[in-house]
Amino acid sequence: MAKAENSRIALPVGTNLDRFIMKNQEAFAYATGELSQLLRDLAYAGKVVNREINMAGLAGITGAYGAENVQGEEQQNLDVAANIRFSRALKKGGEVVAVISEEEEDIIHLNPHGKYIIAIDPLDGSSNIDVNVSIGTIFSIYRRKSEDGTQADMQDVLQPGNEQVAAGYILYGSSTMFVFTTGAGVNGFTYEPSLGEYILSHQDMTIPANGKIYSVNEGSYNSFQPEVKEYIEKCRERGHSARYIGSLVADFHRNLLKGGIYIYPATAKAPKGKLRLMYECNCLAFIAEQAGGMATDGKNSIMDIIPTELHQRVPFFVGSKEMVEEASQL
Ligand code: AHG
Ligand code: MN
Ligand code: MN
Are the C-beta atoms of 107 and 157 separated by less than 8 Å? Predict the structure, then answer.
C-alpha cells in the first residue's frame, strides 16, 4: 500500500493504543472499524502472551504453568501457546477469514464473512525464551480477494507484501512494545503492565538513512556468497559494530531506532535463506519502508516477490536505506 493512501493524524505521546486506533480510523483506507478491531484483538492477545512469557521461567520450576488449566494446550511450550492465543483471539474477533501461521502446516479457516487474512509468526526468536532474551510476535494483515461468504483460497493467502493493509510486531523485551503501520508511517507503543495499556511512546518512527550496526550470524560466514562477504568486509573496515541477538524482531527493532542493517543471507544450511517471506520478511519490510528504510532479498524488493508457497523462505536484507541499497548492489 502506498503511503499516500492514508493520511496521518498526529497524536501526543501518552495516548493509549485504543484511542490512537479509534482516532486514526477515519484515516484508514478501509474505515469500516473492522481493521481497528482486528488490531485491538492482536494487541490484546499480545498482552496474554506477554504475561505467559513473564511467567515462563517460574512456571517451569513450580509446575504452575499448565496446572491452572485442564486443557492440554496450555502445558505446551510457548511457541504453541502463543499460536493458540493469537488464533483464539482472531477467531473470537470475527474479522478474519483465514490465518496462516509459521506454526501451522495449512491455512486455518475462520469466519467466511471475515474481510481479512492474517499471516503470523506467533513467537519469533523462540530459542531465546529459556535464556531470558527478547523475543517477539510478527504479523501482516491483507484484505481477502475471494468473495464474501466463502472459504479463503490460496490466492487470498499468497499475496505479495505490497498488498499488506497493515503490519506490526510485538517485542517482549526489557519492556514490551507494540509497533505497527497501516501505511501511514510507523508508531510504537510501550506496554504499561500495571495499567494493562499500550501507551504511545515512539511517534512516527523513522530509521536513520545510514547506520553503524550490522546484524548477521557471522558463524555462517564461510558459506555466504561473495557479495555478502564483501559487504561484511566493508562494515568491518568501517569499524561498524556487530550486533546479533538471534531474535529477528529484537535485532530489527534496535536497528530501526539506531540505524543499521540486518542480513540473513543464503547459507549452506539454508540455501534459500532461513527467514519466511509470509510470516517475517513482508511485515518487517513494510515497517522498514514506512519508516524510510528498505528491504530486499539481496537484489529485489521483498514486497514485490510473488509468493508461491506458504512457508517460502527468502534471503533477507533490511534496515537503513543506504546500507541495504549498497549491500543489494554488490
Ligand atoms: P523463529 O523462532 O520464529 O523460528 O525464528 C528464528 C529466526 C529469527 O528470529 C532469528 O533472527 C534467526 O532465526 C536466527 O537464526 P540463526 O540462529 O541461524 O542465526
Ligand atoms: Mn521467526
Ligand atoms: Mn516463530
Answer: yes
Residue 9 in grid coordinates: 493524524
| Domain endpoint, select from 202, 234, 264 | 202
pLDDT at 216 over 60: yes
Is residue 174 a contact partner of residue 20, using CB atoms and an 8 Å limit? no
pLDDT in tens, 253-305: 999 999 999 999 999 999 999 999 999 999 999 999 999 999 999 999 999 99
* Containing structural domain, residue 266: 213-329
276 C-beta closer than 6 A to ligand 1: no
pLDDT of residue 28: 64
**SS3 (DSSP) at 295:** strand
Which CATH number covers residue 171?
Answer: 3.30.540.10
**Is 121 a pocket residue for ligand 1 (Cβ < 6 Å)?**
yes
Q: Are 213 and 240 in contact (CB under 8 A)?
A: yes
| For ligand 1, mutation pick of 77, 80, 83, 124 (most atoms within 8 Å of CB) | 124
Question: 162 with 234, same domain?
Answer: no
According to DSSP, residue 102 is labeled T
Q: Which residue has the cell 558459506?
A: 223
Residues 245 and 172 in one domain: no
Which residue's CA is the closest to the ligand 1 atom numbered 18?
Answer: 217
Please say whether the beta carbons of 204 and 291 come within 8 A.
no
Measured from the Cα of 251, ligand 1's closest atom is: 11
289 CB under 6 A from ligand 1?
no
Residue 297 Cβ contacting ligand 1 at under 6 Å = no
Q: For residues 312 and 131, what is the distance between their CA atoms, to the nearest angstrom?
A: 28
Residue 210 has pLDDT above 70, yes or no: yes
